[in-house]
Amino acid sequence: MTNTSPVPTATARPAQEPVRPGLSIIMLDKKRRVRRRISKTLSWTVLVVLLLVTLFPFYWMLRTSFSTNGDLAANSGSLLPAHFSVNGWKRVLGLSTAKEALADGGSGASLDFRLYLRNSLVVATLTTVVQTSFSALAAYAFARLRWPGRDAIFFLFLTALMVPPIFTMLPNFILIRDLGLLNSYLGIVLPNLLMAPFSVFFLRQFFLGIPRELEEASRLDGAGYIRTFFSVILPISNAPITTLAILTYITSWNDYFWPLLVGKSESVRVLTVALGVFRSQTPQGSPDWAGLMAATLISALPIFILFAAMGRRVINSIGFSGLK
Amino acid sequence: MNGKHRSRVAATALASSVALLLAGCSGGSSSSDKSNATVNLNYWLWDSAQQPGYEECAGAFTKENPKIAVKTTQYGWNDYWTTLTTGLISGEGPDVFVGHLSHYPELASKGQILPIDDVVDSKQADLSIYRKGLADLWVAQDGHRYGLPKDYDTVAVFANQKMLDDGGITKAQLDAMAWNPTDGGSYEAVIAHLSIDAKGVRGDQAGFDKNNVATYGLGLNASGGAFGQTEWSEYAFSNGWTHSDKNPWGSSWKFDDPKFIETIAWFQSLAAKGYMPTLQVAASGIGQVDAYGAGKYAMVTEGSWNTKGYFALKGVKTAIAPVPKGPNGQHASMFNGLADNIAANTKHPAEAKKLIAFLASKKCQDITASKGIAFPAIEASADVSKKAFASEGIDTAAFLVPISEGSTYLAPVADHWSELQAIMTPAMDAIMSLSASPDSLKAVNQQVNALFKK
Amino acid sequence: MRKVKMAQPAPAAALRRTGRFSIARSRETRVALLFVAPAAIGFLTFTLVPAIRGFYYSFTDYNMFQPAQGVGLANYRKLVADPIFWNSLRVTLEYVVINIGIQTVVALGIAMLMHRLTKSMLVRGIILAPYLVANVIVALVWFWILDYQIGIGNQMLAALGIHRLAFFGDGALAIPTIALINVWRYMGYTALLLFAGLQMIPKDVYEAAALDGASEWKTFWRVTMPLLRPVLSLVLIVSIVGSFQTFDTVAVTTKGGPVNATRVIYFYIYDLAFNRYQFGYAATISVALFVILAGVTVIQLRMTRANQSDLS
């Protein structure tokens, strides 16, 4: 991607000057350069501050994950781990015996980490692929096709955003149970599989922004609506679709309450549910901080890798120069 | 690009449909093929520290009843009740689960748990082996019994040994603390002495800056709401007060009683003087245990169930003392306990009742007591428990003082408990934030009593 | 730049040429219905039907365990007279205004900075990182950091000579604190959405503005913002709706306290349904919340004319 703000070059400058008569060329040039430098420094400072604020809690999580639970309170002011230990990580990865775990203030429950990771991967991938595909289709229909009742139905879809999850949770749970899909992957993904109001909304707004000339050109060539969608619209929507896919993946990965309800058995238990064992076990008691922080970092890692791999697609430029 | 994209989309669609088909078939079957005659019972609990003990119990139970298998599942406290509710509604819940006094009345009145009178009648359980009063807590207003006592807890004072030594407070002094609502007695004197401000001035010295306290003599967890189990119930009881006219199942509440108001007024004064944090300070953080561990609190009043948590704190040596003696001469403490309940929609009521009887028997309670987490409800198992705690260096004598004295007060059990809490908690919050006067309790009590008028 | 409403003429003109207008239209409709079908099925089964059921429950005394008994409008009358409901509405509104106000500005700023300053994937990854952490954990971590007595945050303040702040315990600070925590969590996510929107703006537009001699600030307001409108409107609507439904942070940290200062509406609903078994009344409040959100969304859609895009 190239920087889209106007950058003065040796050739561009003379073209701009005639527009502002009465100002000395040299003075204007210097003033603009200084202003640009200040603005750039300011921008960088702001960005760095934001990055620090963003990162600090992660550093704190890292530091806590390498601490011993009992020493945390006493060393609360220290930026270094309190009595360095890798026991938290051992507990999360299931490498610690129940006795060791309990002695350290953790839970004695066993964790089969790879199994939960696999389950999370299956659920998130399934949800993302299917949901994004169907949402894209629907979004295009709302954005560019004309059909009776389109806007009213779109608003109806939008209202799905506003339905409080508590309404849908119980009836969906009973439906899944009646379908016999409890404790199966399908049961976990089904409510969100076919669409999410956000995905439809998001892609619709993007499709709205695509210049009509592209589709018209394609249709003038004789392509049908379906062909136009797949050969013209989809390729140039790479960035928003990838963005949406990443965000859907993350949301699905972090989903907690629904998989807790529907996916209790070990074979389909996802990471977030499995990591619930690190939260507080007693009323007014403390969580297993080291284990909890280690667990959080581990479960964020696969997504980070995913983002690193797919991120390039997000920043690819659209390049409308093809029109000219 | 066009063709590639189209085939890519098609491939994805195909892959998804295959995945869908597979997912539907695989992913673990929920209803295992019911093998011949073995009955599988599901048992839920929230305390992971107690899970090993109960799994051992379950193993012992299956040895005695080979046709009944017990699967123990643990859900953290934060998720326990919502998961249980959904389980009860859907039929995918437990057969037997650990219950709680504040939840079982409502579950019973809605027909969600099974009465177990027949367990007692058929002599599968003997009520006389439990500590006095505990068994009564689990009989609902309809006169039916819903649980058998498993364990009990009382309240005591935990103190930071080093701060005691620095302040020159001896164990004898600690054990002999007494309080009264007028001037706080020797209890307040100790608290004041242990409070230290940022400049090192103690609470009972001139120039103590109550706005800049480094260490509070007494810690605070929350305002206590209507319960006040670890916060203020011990003071109120020893001032001659009880929550309601009768317990269990009181319907006329006494939060407007002058004895209660003067107790709360004294409690509030501790915060006003800087010896105890205000609610803003106390609630603006992780919790009492960690604040104590960081040296911000010299003493705290805590329930016995959290003992292990305090002793696990490194760098702090803790001494346990009984609650202070009150105006009526008692070391009063709230007396609470857990029991197991049976879900009404269980498919195996007879087996579930057998399990409950076993969990409440001496055999099982000896096993759980030996793990040193909670105190067993059965008197005869007390020694096992004492030894288990002692082996970790914890002297639990202070918790037993109210029991040996006979000054225990049963935890309040009543209808509309959650509504009651919803009224009392904001009121008590306001008082402990120093933004309302204890006299406001008079009006609040009327609201509470109105709940029971209908 | 001329604002063009949803263009009707172009396709119709092309089709009129062929003279098969009505058949083509119905073909368009058929394709549209085909495209919308899977999403519609999902919507119907898993959202619409449960929502209607929930609406039905608002007229009953349903407690989830026993069969529901109709009570007519009693719940609604109770709602109007319920001071805690009105308090929770006010609390939620305060939260939404602070949260969305700050979050949108910060996210826009970040998106612009990412757009102009650096192509680094690392920076983008870091900015998005807070969104990768589960909601509940974020709340717990900040609860520790901002603890009045032992949190690093307050210790830094004390070191700077500023008086410690009871972030969660002080009635006036609690909601802003929770709002800011959620800004921290969502600013990267929101920025990423806005950034994707910025990507869609063609370069030639900027070049034209530069040729006209527009300053950066003017470029931003006159060129970037209007073209960003569909995406910005999406972000605002979704953020506001989500913000009204905030729950996890409150449930972990303040649990509605102190003195109901953080009892946001969704927490109240949840508490009523699962702790007090009053699902019928909780459903009533949910319906009220839904109506409010629908109203807010309609107003927003109108105001931002999100159905149109300046590029077409």
Short description:
The complex is a heterotrimer of chains A (324), B (454) and C (312). Chain A has 324 residues and is an all-alpha fold.
General description of the model:
The complex is a heterotrimer of chains A (324), B (454) and C (312). With 324 residues, chain A is mainly alpha-helical. Chain A has helices spanning 12-16, 25-65, 69-72, 87-92, 98-103, 113-143, 150-162, 165-178, 185-193, 197-208, 212-220, 225-236, 238-254, 257-262, 271-274, 289-314. Chain A is flat and about 75 Å long. The model of chain A is unreliable at 1-19 and 317-324 (pLDDT under 50). Chain B has helices at 2-25, 51-64, 77-90, 104-109, 117-121, 161-167, 171-175, 185-194, 233-238, 258-273, 279-283, 288-293, 307-311, 349-359, 362-369, 382-390, 397-405, 417-432, 440-451; strands spanning 39-45, 68-74, 96-99, 149-153, 155-160, 196-197, 213-218, 297-303, 318-321, 333-342, 375-376, 408-410. The N and C termini of chain B lie far apart (73 Å). Helices cover 73% and strands 0% of the residues of chain C. Chain C has 13 helices and no strands. Chain C is flat and about 70 Å long. At the B-C interface, helix 3, helix 11 and helix 18 of B face helix 12 of C.
Order of helices and strands of chain A: HHHHHHHHHHHHHHHH
Shape of chain C: flat
Output the radius of gyration of chain A.
Answer: 27 Å
- Helix count from the secondary structure assignment of chain C: 13
First and last CA, distance of chain C: 11 Å
Discrete helix count of chain A: 16
Largest sheet of chain A: none
- Proportion of helical residues of chain A: 55-70%
List the helices and strands and how they pair.
The complex is a heterotrimer of chains A (324), B (454) and C (312).
Chain A: H1 12-16, H2 25-65, H3 69-72, H4 87-92, H5 98-103, H6 113-143, H7 150-162, H8 165-178, H9 185-193, H10 197-208, H11 212-220, H12 225-236, H13 238-254, H14 257-262, H15 271-274, H16 289-314
Helix pairs in contact in A: 2-16, 6-9, 6-10, 6-13, 7-10, 10-13, 11-12, 13-16
Chain B: H1 2-25, E1 39-45, H2 51-64, E2 68-74, H3 77-90, E3 96-99, H4 104-109, H5 117-121, E4 149-153, E5 155-160, H6 161-167, H7 171-175, H8 185-194, E6 196-197, E7 213-218, H9 233-238, H10 258-273, H11 279-283, H12 288-293, E8 297-303, H13 307-311, E9 318-321, E10 333-342, H14 349-359, H15 362-369, E11 375-376, H16 382-390, H17 397-405, E12 408-410, H18 417-432, H19 440-451
Parallel strand pairs in B: 1-2, 1-3, 7-8, 10-12
Antiparallel strand pairs in B: 3-10, 4-10, 4-11, 5-8, 5-9, 6-7
Chain C: H1 9-18, H2 21-57, H3 74-80, H4 83-116, H5 121-132, H6 135-145, H7 152-159, H8 171-199, H9 203-211, H10 216-244, H11 248-252, H12 265-275, H13 279-304
Helix pairs in contact in C: 3-13, 4-8, 4-10, 5-8, 8-10, 10-13, 12-13
